[in-house]
Amino acid sequence: MGDKQTDITWELARATNLDNWEDRVPLHEAAYGVAAFEDPGHLSEVAREDLMAMAPFLPGGSVAALDVCHLQCHIGTDTLSLARAGARVTGVDFSPAALESAAGLAERLGLSATWVASDVLDARAAVAGDFDVVYTSIGTITWLDDLHRWAAQIAGLLRAGGLFYIRDGHPSLYALDEDAESLQLRYPYFGGGAAQLWDESTTYAGDGTVAHSRTYQWVHPMSDILNALIGAGLKLLRVDEGKTLPWRFSTRMVEVPGGFAWPEEERDLVPCTYTIIARKGGA
Ligand SMILES: C[S@@+](CC[C@H](N)C(=O)[O-])C[C@H]1O[C@@H](n2cnc3c(N)ncnc32)[C@H](O)[C@@H]1O
Question: Which of 22, 63, 100, 258 could form a disulfide with 87 if both were Cys (CB 3.0 to 4.6 A apart)?
Fold first, then answer.
């Protein structure tokens, strides 16, 4: 559970999280439906939804022929989906095992991509070139303590006029008790900068267990997320809130098209996701 607010240093938290993410890679390789990518028309569900949301803000409605940097790319299934949509893709992640898996998948599928091992908070210095789109989706900033530094990487990676896209779990969702039999608040919405300690040997995809079960995660209220992006000089184009998640946050969630949602009578009570689309000025 993540009840314990703790004073851990970023360095120790990051090292603990990296051990955990390295362990998750073989489990996710087995559980992410990688075999479906053998069909050359297959794109991940997450990427398909994100591409539709981005389309009104992209030239010609598409990422085709654009340089796209995918932050926290994990085993590359979303990154390679963007490549299939025509983008020149660079995937960034701090997990060498995830990038090795992503590179192997790209090779098997005959898709071209660049993979960069870096902390997302150091991404600008680690990645060569600049980008038309910086993309990150589902399972992202709860792993980061410093949103101002995160937003500065994004602004630095974008070309003038470039687009930033994020979709992720809503901070209001993360304040709820995932184990309760009704919607009940449990965790602080305003994290106050403290990490939460979690200890879970399972992961959100597949049945296996990890040896390194501890993680540290940070709660970021919507105002902090939006203000970090605004503070980095990005202009907000669109903010949406959604009722469906790609993972089962609580066992009470039911399967719906596109993922999981609260039972129908509760669905309008609380958002599950947010989406932010923003542009770097100066084009
Ligand atoms: C849930 S995955 C998100 C990707 C995508 N939605 C997916 O499911 O494939 C989270 C990723 O963030 C990466 N990550 C966590 N903390 C990071 C950090 N500080 N710097 C770079 N990557 C990080 C992990 O290695 C993992 O691959």
Answer: 63
